[in-house]
């Protein structure tokens, strides 16, 4: 099954994976540009550079997290529906592991807490 489901479904799973991947890249790019432009506008208004930097980091971090989720989804679709082999499944597992680690570390960087600590503190309130 070296070709995955491509024979059964045609090329549309590959196109879907590419579309979702482009969406993830687009989200990261748009949020990065928006964060910088918004920060420059605030700087021109005379806001504190420290608060501007913190806001840019928060916005950019959230944008990267959202974009990573789409990129992981695209990798899963590509591996399962387009090119299902033991090698690609292994590569997918490694990519998902790395991106999940990045997501967790970005979450900690943005909030100062692990994701499961956020849920506990939200339910305690």
Key phrases:
125 residues, 86% helix, elongated, mainly alpha, 5 helices, single chain, disordered N terminus
The biggest beta sheet, please?
none
Tally of helical segments = 5
Q: Per DSSP, what share of the residues sits in E-state strands of 2 or more residues?
A: under 5%
Q: Helix proportion of residues, in percent? A: over 70%
Overall 3D form: elongated
Number of DSSP strand runs: 0
Please tell me how large the radius of gyration is.
Answer: 19 Å
Please characterize this protein's 3D structure.
The chain is mainly alpha-helical. It has one domain. It is built from 5 helices and no strands. Helix 3 packs antiparallel against helix 4 (86-111).
Characterize this entry briefly.
By secondary structure, the chain is mainly α.
SSE layout:
Elements: H1 6-9, H2 12-44, H3 49-82, H4 86-111, H5 115-124
Helix pairs in contact: 2-3, 3-4
């Amino acid at each position: 099954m070296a070709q995955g489901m491509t024979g059964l479904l045609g090329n549309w799973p590959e196109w879907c994976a590419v579309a979702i991947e482009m969406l993830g890249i687009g989200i990261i790019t748009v949020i990065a540009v928006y964060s910088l432009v918004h920060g420059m506008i605030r700087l021109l208004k005379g806001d504190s550079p420290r608060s501007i930097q913190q806001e840019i980091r928060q916005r950019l971090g959230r944008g990267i997290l959202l974009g990573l989720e789409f990129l992981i989804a695209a990798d899963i679709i590509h591996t399962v529906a387009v090119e299902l082999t033991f090698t690609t499944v292994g590569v997918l597992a490694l990519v998902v592991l790395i991106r999940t680690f990045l997501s967790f570390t970005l979450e900690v960087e943005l909030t100062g807490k692990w994701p499961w600590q956020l849920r506990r503190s939200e339910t305690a309130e």
